[in-house]
């Protein structure tokens, strides 16, 4: 193996006209492409010397066929020189730092030495435009210098001041070229230009290379017509103008016409290079579409670099809509039979599996139902020839299989596949799952793995990739598997866990104490993998009874000891511990739930304390099993009682409606009173605030408080019998604020944290008097969603809602760009074996990874050691 | 008028020290690196100017860290390129 080489230096240079001519195989003079017979014109843009794209023809330069000839450059001799748009900045700089008559640097040798240093003691700096004062006299020939104006895209002019008037004198590319030609090599070196590879006059084109036809192939449309590439169109324009220019020049046309044609030629050459230059209308196709010229081929997302070189499309992948299946394990993914039949895994034939592979080949490419055994699509001989399996050749091919052959078999249950959802923002966006072939046409996944993918089922699509080698499958199984990624490296806690109904279900199961008969408890636990029921706690009329806490304890690992507060904890000043009336004090001793309610804090994604502890004590596999059991148990328990929410769940009684109206009327009156005080000039402004601001703050405060009061009133009426309350308290979805807005009062709508002030002169809507500062004129919504909004309230609500939408749209685009830049900056860094973070070149970024050398994924919510957890599991009580 | 500000006295500026040749030697051998693998710091950084480090010196900074409490880092002083 060759040892890795270091790059010594990179040289950037320009191509000279001489080089253009040497690399050219043909001078192009005709703008036409093909003659009436469809044969390329000699010396036309499709000349056979430039390479061939039509099958059957041979290249006149290299005598190879269309598929082998790489193509060859031609050239166009331009009638007059034109500027290359890409170098306008360099040309401007050179014109400004050199003398207009002798073309030497506008600095004396001493001044140069000050910046660059002497030959022996070089500072390593080069001269820049800033080192030269404007409009000075040349130190070499004494010529007065003029200011050089540059106008985008390619116009240069000199400004002469005569009798206070400014006269602009245009410089032609030929003038500029002759100036650049005269700059001595030595002066260029001081400017940081190596004249051996980049003479500045080469930035002005006298010869234009014509790219090979392979770079701009023409396509034949269905109607037999040829359609040329955008580049060819542009080259046709250039040649036409060039021809006309030459004819006019030879005929001795007036200067005005020559100048016009020169400018036109400059325009065409400019847009040929870059069709998006500032100050230049883009060249368009006949249909009005701007042409995609050289620069556009390289730039941007779909350009050569980001689109073709860094981004690749792959085989062995599938994409379809996703839908939930709570009966799957989190490590599984359901795959439609149609996809499983199309996708394959190569299996090498060996004596131990040859019979199995022969049967697969006999089964053929179509597996009609799930119950049929898996088949195969292709068989590969040792000489790499692929034999397609089809109805008719199955038995013959199957009999031919010997050790050394390869069979591309269908996907079947248990195969490992990579599953991905865009945008792939973190490592958990790609995880490997085990295949479960299913009916239907969608990918199925356990809802507990939605959080890492950030997936929902409103039409999301996901991608699936099949690893094709043993190494890839091993990596997928050991590093990328779902159970290896339950903990997020973002915060060292579980990112996979119960969501929505899992949390509601387990909350309703474990809250307070409930008793189950044998029938009930078996129904709850029938999908979990247990051998024995725990002994019943009591007998009622001879019927053995189990508690709800026992039902949950069954799925916990033995020897688990934890004490923590549930999400439903009200954070009382003095904790009542196991006598808590909300049952929020969770105690698990030796794998038994003693007291407390299991909810979001215990099993939820992002929080999941129990999941986190199981991973630390019993490992990833046990945690995945726990999540499977927990999801199944909670889904069964939520089905035991049923769980639904309707419009009448937002109903309150007459007393509450009375109280709410009272609170709101009081608040509105209070606001009116404060406005009166303000208008009388009696309002005492708060420190650092104007009276207006003070009033606004007071109003916001009063109305906010009123809204919260209505929530309390509504909350008094709605207890745990209400599904929305269960969801809010358990942390499954929504909050008490949502409930307040539905049943009590929607409250103040705001734009940028202030009451709504925009609209007409001195008022938000024509429904209000000018200067009205009242609550309803500035977006306070008295009604609840249930009660219904009046028209002005509805409009204010739309204003407030719009702000939220705009914010999200702006945030996603900004964070997406930030993410892209971070990825580009950090993608090749790795932690070396000595704990340092290094680049691929061995340069050190951090001396210890994260300064403490801790893998955040293996940390406990950021801390390297879970002290509380260790102490708790020893003492079996809260610390 | 000229009350010179010493940035090293500011609470948020970590401790900067020039490392002796011997220390630099041990540093290079522990990490199996040469000076070009070190992180860089410009010669005209205020803290570098105050401790008087010249291009080619190695500076040790000791700063407080969210994760580790105290973290050490070593940087090579380089000349700031023009522009």
Describe this entry's structure for a reader.
- The complex is a heterodimer of chains A (879) and B (83).
- Chain A has 879 residues and is α+β, with helices and mostly antiparallel strands.
- Chain A folds into 5 domains: 84-196, no CATH class; 229-307, no CATH class; 317-485, Barwin-like endoglucanases; 501-608, RNA polymerase Rpb1, domain 3 (Enzyme I, Chain A, domain 2); 647-805, Orthogonal Bundle (Topoisomerase I, Chain A, domain 4), CATH 1.10.132.30.
- Helices cover 34% and strands 15% of the residues of chain A.
- Chain A contains 26 helices and 30 strands.
- In chain A, the strands form 10 sheets. Chain A has a 6-stranded mixed beta sheet. Chain A has a 4-stranded antiparallel beta sheet with strand order 10-13-11-12. In chain A, strands 2-3-4 form a 3-stranded antiparallel beta sheet.
- Chain B starts with 14 loop residues before the first strand and ends in a 5-residue tail after the last strand.
- Chain B has helices at 21-31, 46-51; strands spanning 15-18, 40-42, 58-65, 69-78.
- Chain A binds chain B through residues 125-126, 128, 834, 836, 838, 841-848, 850-854, 862, and chain B through 31-33, 36-39, 65-68, 71-74, 82-83.
Number of continuous helical runs of chain B: 2
Low-pLDDT ranges of chain B: none
Rg of chain B computed from alpha carbons, rounded to a whole number of angstroms? 14 Å
Give me the CATH architecture of the largest domain in chain A, please: Beta Barrel
DSSP summary, beta strand count of chain B: 4
Taken together, the total number of domains of chain A comes to 5
Q: How would you write the strand order of the largest sheet of chain A?
A: 9-15-14-17-8-16
Strand order of the largest sheet of chain B: 1-3-4-2
Largest sheet of chain B: 4 strands, mixed
- Most extensive interface: A-B, 20 and 17 residues
CATH architecture of chain B: Alpha-Beta Complex
Q: What helical percentage do the residues of chain B reach?
A: 10-25%
Radius of gyration of chain A: 39 Å
């Amino acid at each position: 193996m060759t040892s890795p080489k270091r790059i010594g230096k990179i040289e950037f240079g320009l191509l000279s006209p001489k080089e253009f001519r040497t690399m050219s195989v043909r001078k192009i003079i005709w703008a036409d492409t093909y003659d009436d017979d469809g044969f390329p014109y000699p010396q036309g843009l499709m000349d056979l010397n430039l390479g061939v794209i039509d099958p059957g023809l041979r290249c006149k330069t290299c005598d190879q066929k269309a598929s082998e000839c790489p193509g060859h450059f031609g050239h166009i001799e331009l009638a007059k020189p034109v500027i290359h748009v890409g170098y306008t900045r360099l040309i401007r700089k050179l014109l400004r730092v050199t003398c207009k008559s002798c073309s030497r640097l506008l600095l004396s040798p001493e001044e140069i030495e000050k910046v660059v240093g002497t030959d022996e003691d070089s500072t390593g700096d080069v001269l820049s435009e800033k080192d030269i004062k404007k409009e000075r006299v040349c130190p070499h020939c004494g010529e007065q210098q003029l200011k050089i104006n540059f106008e985008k895209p390619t116009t240069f002019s000199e400004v002469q001041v005569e009798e206070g008037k400014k006269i602009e004198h245009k410089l032609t590319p030929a003038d500029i070229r002759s100036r650049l030609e005269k700059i001595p090599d030595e002066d260029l070196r001081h400017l940081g230009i190596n004249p051996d590879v980049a003479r500045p006059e080469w930035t002005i084109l006298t010869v234009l290379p014509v790219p090979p036809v392979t770079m701009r192939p023409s396509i034949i449309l269905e109607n037999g017509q040829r359609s040329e590439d955008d580049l060819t169109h542009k080259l046709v324009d250039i040649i036409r103008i060039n021809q006309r220019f030459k004819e006019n020049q030879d005929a001795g046309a007036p200067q005005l016409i020559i100048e016009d044609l020169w400018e036109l030629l400059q325009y065409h050459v400019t847009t040929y290079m870059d069709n998006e230059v500032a100050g230049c209308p883009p060249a368009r196709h006949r249909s009005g579409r701007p042409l995609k010229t050289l620069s556009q081929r390289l730039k941007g997302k779909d350009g050569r670099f980001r689109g073709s070189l860094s981004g690749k499309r792959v085989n062995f992948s599938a994409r379809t809509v996703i839908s939930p299946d709570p009966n799957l394990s989190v490590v599984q993914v359901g795959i439609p039979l149609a996809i499983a039949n199309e996708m394959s895994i190569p299996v090498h034939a060996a004596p131990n599996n040859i019979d199995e592979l022969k049967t697969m080949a006999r089964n053929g490419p179509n597996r009609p139902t799930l119950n049929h055994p898996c088949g195969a699509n292709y068989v590969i001989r040792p000489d790499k020839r692929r034999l397609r399996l089809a109805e008719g050749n199955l038995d013959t091919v199957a009999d031919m299989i010997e050790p050394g052959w390869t069979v591309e078999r269908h996907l079947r249950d248990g195969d490992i596949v990579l599953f991905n959802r865009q945008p792939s923002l973190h490592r958990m966006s790609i995880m490997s799952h085990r295949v479960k072939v299913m009916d239907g046409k969608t990918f199925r996944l356990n809802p507990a793995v939605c959080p890492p993918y950030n997936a929902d089922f409103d039409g999301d699509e996901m991608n699936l990739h099949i690893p094709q080698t043993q190494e890839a499958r091993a990596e997928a199984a050991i590093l990328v598997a779902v159970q290896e990624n339950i903990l997020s490296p973002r915060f060292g806690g579980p990112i996979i866990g119960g969501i929505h109904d899992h949390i509601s279900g387990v909350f309703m199961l474990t809250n307070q104490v409930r008793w189950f008969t044998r029938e009930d408890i078996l129904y709850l636990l029938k999908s979990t993998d247990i051998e024995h029921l725990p002994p019943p706690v009591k007998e009622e009329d001879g019927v053995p009874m189990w508690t709800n806490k026992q039902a949950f304890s069954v799925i916990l690992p033995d020897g688990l000891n934890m004490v923590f507060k549930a999400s439903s904890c009200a954070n009382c000043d003095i904790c009542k511990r196991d006598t808590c009336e909300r049952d929020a004090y969770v105690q698990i001793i030796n794998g038994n739930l003693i007291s407390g309610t299991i909810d979001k804090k215990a099993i939820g994604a992002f929080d999941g304390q129990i999941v986190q502890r199981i991973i630390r004590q019993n490992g990833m596999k046990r945690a995945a099993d726990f999540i499977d059991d927990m999801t199944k148990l909670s889904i069964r328990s939520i089905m035991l009682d049923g769980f639904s929410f309707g419009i009448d769940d937002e109903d309150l009684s007459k007393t509450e409606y009375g109280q709410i109206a009272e609170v709101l009327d009081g608040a509105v009156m209070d606001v009116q009173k404060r406005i009166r005080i303000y208008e009388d000039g009696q309002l005492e402004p708060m420190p650092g605030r104007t009276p207006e601001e003070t009033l606004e703050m007071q109003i916001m405060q009063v109305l906010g408080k009123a809204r919260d009061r209505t929530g309390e009133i509504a909350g008094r009426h709605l207890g745990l019998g209400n599904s929305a309350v269960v969801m809010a308290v358990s942390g499954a979805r929504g909050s008490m604020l949502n409930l307040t807005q539905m049943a009590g009062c929607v409250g103040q709508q705001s734009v940028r944290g202030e009451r709504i002030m925009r609209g007409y002169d001195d008022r938000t809507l024509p429904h209000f008097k000018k200067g009205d500062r009242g609550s309803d004129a500035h977006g306070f919504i008295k009604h609840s969603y249930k009660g219904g909004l009046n028209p002005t309230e509805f409009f204010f609500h739309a204003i407030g809602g719009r702000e939220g939408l705009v914010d999200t749209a702006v945030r996603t685009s900004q964070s997406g760009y930030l993410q892209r830049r971070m990825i580009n900056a950090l993608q090749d860094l790795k932690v070396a074996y000595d704990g340092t973070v290094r680049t691929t070149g061995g340069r050190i970024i951090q001396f210890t990874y994260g300064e403490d050398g801790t893998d955040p994924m293996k940390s406990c919510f950021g801390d390297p050691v879970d002290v509380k957890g260790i102490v708790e599991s020893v003492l079996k009580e809260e610390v | 008028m000229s009350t010179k500000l010493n940035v090293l006295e500011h609470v948020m500026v970590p401790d900067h020290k020039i490392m002796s040749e011997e220390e630099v030697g041990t540093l290079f051998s522990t990490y199996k690196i040469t000076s070009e693998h070190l992180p860089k710091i410009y010669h005209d950084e205020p803290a570098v100017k105050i401790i008087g480090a010249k291009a080619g010196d190695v500076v040790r900074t000791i700063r407080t860290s969210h994760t580790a409490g105290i973290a050490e880092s070593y940087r090579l002083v380089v000349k700031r390129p023009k522009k």
